[in-house]
Amino acid sequence: MFLDGVPIGGGSSGVVNLADFPLDTLGRVTIYRGLVPVTHGGAAIGGAIDLGSDLRCARDARRLTAAAGFGSFLAREARVAAQLPLLARRKQAPCLDVRAGYGGARGDFPFLNIGETPQNQSDDRITRRQNNNYDRVLGQLAVHGSAGPWRYSAQQLILWKRQGIPGMATGVQATATGLATVVARTVARVRRDLPTTSPGQVELVTGFAADHAHYTDPHGEVGLAVDDQRTRTLDLYASPRLHLHTWRGGSLLAMVDVRNEWTRVDQRAWPDPEGDARRRRLTSGAGLQLDQRLLSDRIHLQPVVRLDVVNSRFLVPAGGGEPDDQGRDHLDVGFAPRLGARVSLHDFVSLRLTGGRYFRPPTMIELFGDRGYIAGNEALRPERGTSVDGGLVIDARNRSTALYAHAAGFVTWSDHLIQWQQSGPRLRPVNLDRARVAGLESALDLRLARGDLIVRGSYTLLAPVNLGDDPVARGQPLPGRPRHDLFAQVSLGHVWRARGTDIEPRLVYSLDHAARTFLDPSGRYEVPRRTLHGLGVELHLARRVHITADVRNLLNQRTTLWHPPIVGAPALPVPISDFFFYPLPGTSFWASIRLDLDLPTRPT
Fold first, then answer.
1. Which of 98, 210, 107 is closest to 160 using CA atoms?
2. Residue 541 contacts by C-beta under 8 Å, 6 or more apart in sequence?
3. pLDDT at residue 553 tops 90
4. Closest Cα to residue 483, out of 457, 515, 513, 458?
5. Backbone dihedral region of 580: left (phi > 0), alpha (psi from -120 to 50 degrees) or beta?
6. What is the pTM of this model?
7. Which of these ranges, 106-120, 225-239, 248-262, 465-479, has the smallest mean pLDDT?
8. pLDDT for the residue numbered 322
9. Which residue, among 547, 540, 554, has the nearest Cα to 509 in the 3D structure?
10. Selected residue with higher pLDDT from 556 and 148
11. What is d(CA 210, CA 95) in angstroms, rounded to the nearest whole number?
C-alpha cells in the first residue's frame, strides 16, 4: 500500500486500514495487479495499490464539503473539508486542503455465542458483542501547486484511534482489552520538467511517519498473560527518480529509495523486566524500468529490474525482548527482474502478460507488533517467488454505453511465503517453505443508457496449496484465503430535470459471497460459506446534495451450519463470520448526507 508513492504499511499501526484514510480526497486509486512499477517495491504477491491525492488546483475554486452519517449499533461519522486557493491573484497559486473527521461505533450487535465448546449446543446462546467499540479522529492538511517548472505537494495526516479487542466467537469475550494508536504521517513530493533538449522529469518523493500504539490486556483475556505494551515506531523514506524520454516511443525510469525504520517496545506487564527492545531496519533499493511503445502504441513492453538490500538489526541484549525472542542481525538481498507486455488486439481489446521474480521482506508488525489479535514472529524471513499472469482487458465506450471488463489467470510459486495462521485467539504470521497460489481474477463495470443502469462485479477463484515438507499440511489449502469470492452490484436510476435542477434517485442492490475458507493448515476446519445481500437508495440533488440509506445483510443472516471435521458428525449452528471466524452482524442500517458547495470567490 502506498500514499502518493510512499509506502504506508509496516509500522506499529500494522496492516493498512482504508477506513482510516480520507478516501474522498483522492484524485485516483491505482491498482497494480500484474506488473508492479519499479518505484513500488519488489512486486509482492498481491501486487500494489497507490492512493493518489487530488493535485488539481483551480485558481478560482473554493470548495467546502461536509458529511455526516449514522447507523446501527451507534455507528456515527462526521467530516468536513475545504479546498482554498492561496494567493489567488498569482497565476500559479498554490491550493490548501484542510480536512477533519470523526468516526465511531459501539459495535454491540447480537450474535450466536458458541463458547469454547462448538460441538456442545447446550451452552450456545445469543449475546451481544462486547468490547467491540472504537473512536477515530483524523486530520489532514495538504498544500500543492507549481512554481515555474516545479510542481510540489505535501500533506500531513494525523490519526488517533481507540478501540476494544473483543476476541473470537468460539471463546470468552474480552471486556477490558484495548488498543490506542496515534499516527502522524508526512508525505511530500517535488517534480521538475527537464528542458526540451533532454525531455523528461526529475522527482523526489519523501515520507515520514511516527506511530505510537498502546496495547493493554489487564486480565489476560486475549493473550497468554497480563499485557501492557507500548510500541513506538519511526519510519523515514526518500526516493529520487529520473524519468527520461530517450528515443522514439521509449522512456527510461531510474530510481533509488531508502527506508529506515526504528521500533521500540516498552513492556510493562511481564513478571520480570523482559519484553523491552529496540530494533532497526535499513532497506535500500535501486531499479530501472524501460517503457517501449511500438506500432503506434499497439505494443507496449515494460522490462523492469530491481535490487533490494535489507539490513536488519534485531538482536537484543541479554534480558531484553520477549522470553522466547528470536530476533537476530542479518542481511537479505532481493533481486526482482520482471517483464510486462500489452498488445492491442483491437481498439478496445488488449492482451496483457507479466512474469518475473518478486521479493517482499516482512513488515515490522509481522515481526514484532502486538495489536491484541496479532502476535509477531521475530524469526520471519523475506518471501520470494516467481509469478506469471495473463489475461484480456475490454475497454469500450460510446455516448450511451461504457464497458470495462478483465479476466486474468495467474500462478505464483513462493519460497518462505508469509502466511497468517491462528494461534489460539490471535493471528500469527509464519513462513511456509514452499507454496503455490493459482487462480482466476475477473471484474466487470457496465454502464447502459448513459449510466441509468450500472452493473459492477468481481469474482476471484483461488487455489492456494502448501507444498512444504510438513506431512500434515502438504497439499492442503492455505488458511484465510477463500476459494470463491464474489461481489456484484446493480444500480438503477435516472437524472430528471425539474425547474433547472438535476434530481437523480437511484436504487442499489449488492451481493457478497465467500466460500471454502479454512482456519487451519491441515485443511480440516472450514469456515462456513456466507452470502450477504444489501439494498440501498440514493438521492442526488443538483450534484451538490447526496443522501444515501443502506440496509446491509438484508436477510438478517446471523447463523449458518458448520460441519465438524469428524466423520458422521451432524452439522452444527455457528455465527456467520469473517475469514478468521470473527462474528459478523445481522441486519444493519446506515444513512448519510454529503454537501458539496462552491464558496464565493474573492474579487480580484
1. 210
2. 501, 502, 503, 504, 547
3. yes
4. 515
5. alpha
6. 0.89
7. 106-120
8. 67
9. 554
10. 556
11. 26
